[in-house]
């Protein structure tokens, strides 16, 4: 069975961020294998970044870094607070994907993310400099409508 991420954020037709969201906290014993899968997928599609999010933590990785360590990790609560008000009582995979999609499409949210975590400035620059950011779903809808 091949790995497919939950979401890919594109700038035009170029992948910028590969995203995997988990509805439950990722156990440490599985984290490395998930990160390896994400890195391999991200490398294969030439995405600069990949992101692993669960209800507790969101980790952002640079694809070209040989290390398994994220560039930054932040509380998922921060992403949820940026995107959804009032805060939902339960945060599952679909809620995470909705929140991430919303934050990655909003330049003000991205700016606050960079201000709160200076290690993410290059991530924010790469994501926000895109003239049009689309998810894989957006591209699929466009191709079906033409």
Give a concise summary.
By secondary structure, this protein is α+β, with helices and mostly antiparallel strands. 45% of the residues lie in helices and 21% in strands. It has helices at residues 28-44, 76-83, 93-104, 107-116, 121-128, 136-145; strands at 7-11, 14-21, 49-53, 57-62, 72-75, 133-135.
Shape annotation: globular
Rg, Å, rounded: 14 Å
Give me the secondary-structure category.
alpha+beta
Task: Characterize the quaternary organization of these chains.
Answer: single chain
- Sheet bearing the most strands, described? 6 strands, mixed
Average pLDDT, rounded to a whole number, is 88
Order of strands in the sheet with most strands? 5-4-3-2-1-6
Number of helices: 6
Run of helices and strands: EEHEEEHHHHEH
Let me know the number of strands: 6
Q: Report strand %.
A: 15-25%
The poorly predicted ranges are none
Q: What is the terminal-to-terminal distance?
A: 31 Å
> How many structurally independent domains?
1
Helical amount among residues, as a percent range? 40-55%
Write the layout of secondary structure elements.
Layout: E1 7-11, E2 14-21, H1 28-44, E3 49-53, E4 57-62, E5 72-75, H2 76-83, H3 93-104, H4 107-116, H5 121-128, E6 133-135, H6 136-145
Parallel strand pairs: 2-3
Antiparallel strand pairs: 1-2, 1-6, 3-4, 4-5
Helix pairs in contact: 2-3, 4-5
Descriptive overview:
The chain has 146 residues and is α+β, with helices and mostly antiparallel strands. The chain has one domain. 45% of the residues lie in helices and 21% in strands. It contains six helices and six strands; from the N terminus they run ββαβββααααβα. It has helices at residues 28-44, 76-83, 93-104, 107-116, 121-128, 136-145, and strands spanning 7-11, 14-21, 49-53, 57-62, 72-75, 133-135. Strands 5-4-3-2-1-6 form a six-stranded mixed β-sheet, with helices on both faces. Strand 1 (7-11) and strand 2 (14-21) form a beta hairpin. The longest helix has 17 residues, at 28-44. It is globular and about 40 Å long. The model has no long low-confidence stretch (mean pLDDT 88).
């Amino acid at each position: 069975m091949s790995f497919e991420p939950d979401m890919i954020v594109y700038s035009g037709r170029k992948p910028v961020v590969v995203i995997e969201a988990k509805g439950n906290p990722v156990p440490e014993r599985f984290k490395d294998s998930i990160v390896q899968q994400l890195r391999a997928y991200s490398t294969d599609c030439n995405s600069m970044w990949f992101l692993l999010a669960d209800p507790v933590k969101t980790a952002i990785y640079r694809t070209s870094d040989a290390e398994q360590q994220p560039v930054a990790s932040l509380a998922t609560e921060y992403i949820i607070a940026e995107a959804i008000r009032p805060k939902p009582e339960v945060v599952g995979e679909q809620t995470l994907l909705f929140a991430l999609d919303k934050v990655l499409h909003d330049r003000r949210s991205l700016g606050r993310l960079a201000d709160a975590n200076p290690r993410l400035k290059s991530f924010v620059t790469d994501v926000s400099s895109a003239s049009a950011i689309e998810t894989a779903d957006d591209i699929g809808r466009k191709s079906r409508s033409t």
